[in-house]
């Protein structure tokens, strides 16, 4: 029997979260301010969404646009935010920090991960801006709780990154490649067959769940369409 393909949907508020769950999402990524590509939402929003839905939530740990942690003071703030988010009911997280040279800011990541105290987390699309994706993965290998990379394979999106995604999927299980690949960033339904054929089983959508754009809410029907396609591809891959 095939495992269900994971569908994660970006939620900005309770309305989004309820619609995403109704459409068949398995997990939500909670953020605010998509003009900055997604920042940490308010504690009120996190608590409200946690009370409204019963699917998994991953909360963004990111306080400013870009992928820098913001120096020692910024890292202290990020660590403090994690404690507040956990008190508000957050149990899973999304984060990722790079230094000025495009290498992983390992010190910042380790400090924030220490505050997670074993909670599951995703390293987000900072990997798509990294100078060396393979080096980043191997430096992060073994950090507690890291179970997913959210990636388009390239900074420009899945159209550009598809070959990289397929190549990385083929390395699954090797050091630095044990984590699940969750594809997001310019993802379209027509990308799904090639990605499923490569063994990728997790997909992340934001704008694709919002027919009216980011000014409008998540659409139950749009999420349900993704759910239907992913379920069909999962059945097809098992035949």
Automatic annotation (TrEMBL):
One of its GO terms (molecular function) is copper ion binding. It holds the Pfam family CutC. Belongs to the CutC family. This is Copper homeostasis protein cutC homolog. The lineage of its organism: Bacteria, Bacillati, Actinomycetota, Actinomycetes, Kitasatosporales.
């Amino acid at each position: 029997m095939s495992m269900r393909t994971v569908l994660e949907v970006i939620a900005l508020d309770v309305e989004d979260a309820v619609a995403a769950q109704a459409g068949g999402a398995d997990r939500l990524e909670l953020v605010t301010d998509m003009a900055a590509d997604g920042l940490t939402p308010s504690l009120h929003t996190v608590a409200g969404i946690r009370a409204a839905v019963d699917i998994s939530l991953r909360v963004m740990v990111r306080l400013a646009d870009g992928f820098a942690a913001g120096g020692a003071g910024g890292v202290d703030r990020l660590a403090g935010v994690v404690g507040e988010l956990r008190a508000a009911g957050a149990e899973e997280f999304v984060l990722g920090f790079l230094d000025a040279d495009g290498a992983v800011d390992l010190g910042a990541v380790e400090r924030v991960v220490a505050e997670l105290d074993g909670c599951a987390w995703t390293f987000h699309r900072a990997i798509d801006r990294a100078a060396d994706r393979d080096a980043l993965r191997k430096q992060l290998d073994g950090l507690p709780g890291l179970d997913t990379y959210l990636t388009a394979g390239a900074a420009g999106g899945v159209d550009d990154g598809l070959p990289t995604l397929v190549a990385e999927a083929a390395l699954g299980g090797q050091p630095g490649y044990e984590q699940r690949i969750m594809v997001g960033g310019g993802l379209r339904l027509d990308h799904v067959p090639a990605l499923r054929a490569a063994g990728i089983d997790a997909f992340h959508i934001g704008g694709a769940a919002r027919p009216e754009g980011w000014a409008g809410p998540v659409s139950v029907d749009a999420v349900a369409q993704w759910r239907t396609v992913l379920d069909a591809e999962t059945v097809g891959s098992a035949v």
